[in-house]
Amino acid sequence: MVEPQPASPRLNGEENMTGAETNMRLKLPIICFILQIILIILFGVLVQYNDEVDAREWHDKLDHGNKSHSEHNGHPESKVHSNYENDFYYRYPSFQDVHVMIFIGFGFLMTFLQRYGFSSVGFNFLIAAFSLQWATLMQGFFHGMHAGKIHIGVESMINADFCTGAVLISFGAVLGKTSPVQMLVMAVFEVTLFAINEFILLSILGAKDAGGSMTIHTFGAYFGLTVTRVLYRPNLDKSKHKNCSVYHSDLFAMIGTIFLWMFWPSFNSAITAHGDDQHRTAMNTYYSLAACTLATYGMSAITAHDGKLDMVHIQNAALAGGVAVGTAGEMMLTPFGSMIVGFLAGIISVLGYKYLSPIMEEKLKIQDTCGVHNLHGMPGVLGAIVGAVTAAVASKDIYGNGMEDVFPDVAEGDITASYQGVRQAISLAVTLGMALVGGVIVGFLLKLPIYGAPPDTICFEDNIYWEVPGDEEEAHQDKASVRMTETERLNA
Amino acid sequence: MVEPQPASPRLNGEENMTGAETNMRLKLPIICFILQIILIILFGVLVQYNDEVDAREWHDKLDHGNKSHSEHNGHPESKVHSNYENDFYYRYPSFQDVHVMIFIGFGFLMTFLQRYGFSSVGFNFLIAAFSLQWATLMQGFFHGMHAGKIHIGVESMINADFCTGAVLISFGAVLGKTSPVQMLVMAVFEVTLFAINEFILLSILGAKDAGGSMTIHTFGAYFGLTVTRVLYRPNLDKSKHKNCSVYHSDLFAMIGTIFLWMFWPSFNSAITAHGDDQHRTAMNTYYSLAACTLATYGMSAITAHDGKLDMVHIQNAALAGGVAVGTAGEMMLTPFGSMIVGFLAGIISVLGYKYLSPIMEEKLKIQDTCGVHNLHGMPGVLGAIVGAVTAAVASKDIYGNGMEDVFPDVAEGDITASYQGVRQAISLAVTLGMALVGGVIVGFLLKLPIYGAPPDTICFEDNIYWEVPGDEEEAHQDKASVRMTETERLNA
Amino acid sequence: MVEPQPASPRLNGEENMTGAETNMRLKLPIICFILQIILIILFGVLVQYNDEVDAREWHDKLDHGNKSHSEHNGHPESKVHSNYENDFYYRYPSFQDVHVMIFIGFGFLMTFLQRYGFSSVGFNFLIAAFSLQWATLMQGFFHGMHAGKIHIGVESMINADFCTGAVLISFGAVLGKTSPVQMLVMAVFEVTLFAINEFILLSILGAKDAGGSMTIHTFGAYFGLTVTRVLYRPNLDKSKHKNCSVYHSDLFAMIGTIFLWMFWPSFNSAITAHGDDQHRTAMNTYYSLAACTLATYGMSAITAHDGKLDMVHIQNAALAGGVAVGTAGEMMLTPFGSMIVGFLAGIISVLGYKYLSPIMEEKLKIQDTCGVHNLHGMPGVLGAIVGAVTAAVASKDIYGNGMEDVFPDVAEGDITASYQGVRQAISLAVTLGMALVGGVIVGFLLKLPIYGAPPDTICFEDNIYWEVPGDEEEAHQDKASVRMTETERLNA
């Protein structure tokens, strides 16, 4: 049975100044249990399998060959003949890739902090496990209930993971400076705001945002930045020595980076229409990210006085291309168009990490731990703009009968492509507004001294909330002293 | 060319007491080569591609449009029109997720041990590579041979990985205390017993256990616990200082945990019927695991005197929800039902890790390294019970024509749903019996002093079986002495 | 905001002898930007979506039900009725597995080097991001342009990743001894040579090589070995102490190994014909790798004087089975046939690592960092031979109407199976010739002292090209001195 070695007092003297305030013994269980029980009750009352999941309903569809109830299936198929046509087969592989991005990608990307790895992966895990359940309810409510019930299937699983992504982006902005209780509270509100914003954009304004440049990245980043501004810590420099990486923590973070980079094509294409749309979105994202990577390496070297690459850039900025084609990915962006967008995103992102973040910290008091403004904020806005422009120039010539999958209202002649572009632009403004206003309100809620947040002197430290074993070095020294003691004993 | 640095004698003095007994120079090659050659011969005589894999047979099916030979395809499709209907496309993505769970999930989860990472990942790799081949034969034999041959396809690959999972669970119980030769011998017998038990449950008793709560988890756990009891080591406390984690080994273990957690929906749904069954099983598992995670974090904090989270709980107990819906996952468990099950599983699992395992070690002399009783044993039994209850209340109202995929005998009116529940309960008892009796027999076989197992003083140590390089610290010190030597030389 | 701690001068004194020559401040940005801009321009002029990706074209196909333009779809489907028949669904899951092998598999496998992890993962990332774009153009040109355009889809993404694999294999041969600029230059030429060789083999000679035993592994290995011979470093032993692993770097490398091993079935089957071919290729690869693993463990133990397993063997040789069935994987190799091939491959590979590589280094002056000759070189040649033999004995009896997917020319009676075997053998010779000649030419190009390559004394060191943070040990010591300073200050 595993027994964690207690952290040696010698090396962790300063960290053991955790007090009753940060003690999670009651706070965390109370919030976890209350939230989970509420979720169970609400699911019991409100949630049902949809007709691709429910045994009776699916087999009714098979027997009667009628797929009329199907919701987000793009080009409507007239009849369902076989189990092979269950939406599971056409969405689940993409879902799994999204899932890996949420749990491994985000979780390990944030392990760059040398003494916050447990919290990065662990709190990412907790926040996500809660958020995807709460998002299922919030989004289900807004996407439309049938007969007073929310019907769920693989597509709701994807959408819930998308919403969770926004919460984790915000977590990245405040990383190292909050308690897990604060993060769960933030998630409660952020998920709700996300669902409202998503509803306004997609259902009311009729915007398109398949990969969430606006709904996920812009929203998550500016919400998180606002929260971190409200929670500004004047003495955070006392924890400065821990707000950095060590050699192997940078390698752990690369696990996160690479999984995010590889699976982003699945992320952006996960809820696009079946057929050419999913195919095209995956390809646009793939090329955008490749170009972004080249740009990132070039920019990282050129902005360093000694030309040395900065792992922060490689870990983060190389991903900006995925964010920047989130909106336009399903459009006829063209391969080279995707590459241009990715290339620009990489340049903007590295410049942000190098020059803008320090300024934002010093002048605007925004302590953005992961630099989410450079990976999700600015590239998200770029993605929204690219989406607006690409939408505005859409035409029947380019899209043929595929127009109705991407721009249904334009295809039906209800609006012009230019107006679709305007919708996209308005959506960006709405998103920014929701993020900033929501971030202020939630930020002040989180400022209440009831959550067990760490003091400025011991941020970025796992030891507050986790039983932390010693390092190998301590283990060796302990071994040495064990051996010495045994020798002494034998020689006595 | 890479040359591993020899482990420094200073720090590893006590570990270099490896003797001729643990020398693998002949034992391991002999068993690896003999087993592999036997496998090759048996495959040569007995194994063929099935008609979805064989070039001639598949194209015959295509040309004649008749899919009458298809074995486990659920709802029988009347005609095969196209290569797109090859079962490969509807099983392989799930297979790959299962494969990742077996090799990355189990392999890295066990790297929490600070000096046993090579053996954890490495022996997991070896045991699995052997077991999946042997399982293909054993399960093929029991699933039914046609014309004296075992026909294989992607579904047999999944089933072989499932069987391997049980062996790896048992490996977790004895982790750190055995030689690789012992583990291969254990696998030879355990795979056979697994196949027999699976046959009794699924083919004779007619039970359902798609995700293996009984066949994989309950069986693997209690078999392994019995073996570890037989192999009780009275002086294991001498290795106590190594039976624990260090900071980065806990992060490596989280790689395993997160991949297991994310892919469990694929695991539980991998061999269910096509269509709604696979879809539903994946969703039930997803919600069970999410609720389990919330419960795990809450319980971990509340059971700690200082409220600090224990990585052991997060790494293991958060997965119990997947085990607990292994049987019922394909049933109409409902989303909130799945959450309740997962929530309970998390609570039980943490309580097990915290309170039961120490008691089992002290009173029952069961030295359960990974705490498999808490992740696979008790949650497996819970899963069997949940399955029995859910089966017993099944009705045509709930399942409609989908009943025949999940409970074919009930659908055909041969038995009542209550009786199906009884079958499930009997299956649990049979599984426990097989595991305990089999574990005793195999345990005593493994007690023979011929396998090169480590003595009590040097368990949980890679150095016995692996060439282990130094740590970075030693490397720095060696560098320092190299530099000093060069300076001295230059100054001479 | 993350601030990397500067590497402590005390421990890294010798590494800080990086001069203006290795300074990447201009070299790397220039080549990255120039290459990317050229790529963007060429893509803009030459590259279009194919008719499974383009909105207009796909919907035209749907409406007219005619799939006549489809290129590499194997058995031609007569009509396209539904979005579900988009090639995306039948290739993308395999593509993602290949992608993981390229970025995680190769990237992390090479992190075994104790101080070269950033460069291994990081330069792998950069080289691959460039190569897949350039390969899209090169291969598109040779695969045939329509109306002066290269049409791309998921299959071109797979083929581009395949070509990238060859470049990364070559990178493995020179790992630790080059600058990123050199690697990009190498990639420019190697991708072109790969595309030419692939065209000669597949289109002119009519050989089959679905998993690239010849086009990827043989070519990549011998090209890389030739380059590393030309770039021979007489004083490389001065960096010897860094050309090795430490405990946790070996664990990071196992992440790479295991992902490569698990996903190789997808790699070998990714571009085979739909239906039984993909299914069969995946299974052949799975069994070959399992047998290879058993052989590797046996050989590793028996070749060690103390019987201890060598991580180098487990990390690399266990994969040789995948390489060795690259060509024959889609053929009717039979399960036991695959196991025999894998078993042989494992034996050959370990013998290579143990005995051949030292000889090649000493006698032939080939400094093969990753031992690519043992994993890709010899097993690649074995794979070519196995493919030639298996092709030569193909018959209508065995393949039935499936012959036309695997050996179209034999199926149509244009040539005999024996002649197909001859084609395969000639292809091996052509590949070796291309690799050796190409390697010499490119090797001398890379010998020019303009790329900022490191001197012999500081190879295998990240510090040259990366901002490297300190280790945890240094961080602890820094913490200690910070605390001491504060105490002194307080006591002043």
From TrEMBL, chains A, B, C:
Annotated organism of origin: Perca flavescens
Single GO biological process annotation from the record: ammonium homeostasis
GO cellular component: plasma membrane
Keywords: Ammonia transport, Cell membrane, Glycoprotein, Membrane, Transmembrane, Transmembrane helix, Transport
Record-given protein name: Ammonium transporter AmtB-like domain-containing protein
Pfam family, one: Ammonium_transp
Stated family: Belongs to the ammonium transporter (TC 2.A.49) family. Rh subfamily.
Presence of the UniProt keyword Nucleus in the record: no
Cross-referenced Gene3D superfamilies: Ammonium transporter AmtB like domains (1.10.3430.10)
